[in-house]
C-alpha cells in the first residue's frame, strides 16, 4: 500500500510598506479578522513574550471600534486565535501567521502559512531567504503588497 502523501503548506508573503514590527502586527490583525470570518483557526507566531504582549494589547485596541477575541495562554478557553511567543502550541494545523524573521519550526504541518514582513531592508533580505527555503521544498508561494490589499 502506498503511503498517504501529506498536503504541502501554502505560503503567502505579505510585504508591508511600513518598516516597523508594530505596523506589520496591525496588518496581521486585519488579516486575522478576515481569516476568522472565513472560519479559519489561527496561531500567531511572535518572536518573544514582549512581542506577544504587544500583539495581545493590539488585538484588544485595534481598530478602535472592535477587538479580535484571542488567547495567550493555552489553558484559557479555546476561541480560534492563539498568540504564542516562539513556542509551539499543539493542536494547530490550519493557519500560522509568522511575525518573526525566522522560519517557524512547525510550519510544515499547517495548511497555510502567512509571512507578514515589515518593509525594512534587513527584514526584506531575511524574507527572501525564507522564500528560497520554502520554494526549495516545493511549497506553493504567493506574494502580496499590503497597500494593495
UniProtKB/TrEMBL annotation:
Question: What are the GO MF terms of this UniProt record?
Answer: DNA binding; DNA-directed DNA polymerase activity
Q: Which residues form the signal peptide?
A: none
* Family annotation (Gene3D superfamilies): DNA polymerase III subunit chi
Q: Which Pfam families match?
A: DNA_pol3_chi
Q: Which GO terms describe its biological process?
A: DNA replication; positive regulation of DNA-templated DNA replication initiation
Name of the molecule in the record: DNA polymerase III subunit chi
SUPFAM superfamilies referenced in this protein's UniProt entry, alphabetically: DNA polymerase III chi subunit
Amino acid at each position: 500500500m502506498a503511503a498517504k502523501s501529506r498536503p504541502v503548506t501554502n505560503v503567502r508573503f505579505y510585504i508591508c510598506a511600513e518598516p516597523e514590527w508594530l505596523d506589520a502586527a496591525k496588518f496581521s490583525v486585519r488579516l486575522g479578522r478576515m481569516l476568522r470570518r472565513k472560519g479559519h483557526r489561527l496561531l500567531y507566531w511572535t518572536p518573544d513574550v514582549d512581542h506577544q504582549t504587544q500583539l495581545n494589547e493590539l488585538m484588544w485596541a485595534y481598530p478602535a471600534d472592535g477587538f479580535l477575541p484571542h488567547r495567550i495562554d493555552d489553558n484559557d478557553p479555546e476561541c480560534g486565535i492563539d498568540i504564542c511567543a516562539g513556542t509551539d502550541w499543539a493542536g494547530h494545523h490550519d493557519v500560522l501567521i509568522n511575525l518573526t524573521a525566522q522560519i517557524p519550526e512547525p510550519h510544515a504541518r499547517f495548511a497555510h502559512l502567512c509571512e507578514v514582513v515589515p518593509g525594512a531592508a534587513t527584514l526584506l533580505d531575511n524574507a527572501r531567504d525564507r522564500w528560497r527555503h520554502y520554494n526549495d521544498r516545493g511549497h506553493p508561494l504567493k506574494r502580496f503588497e499590503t497597500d494593495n490589499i
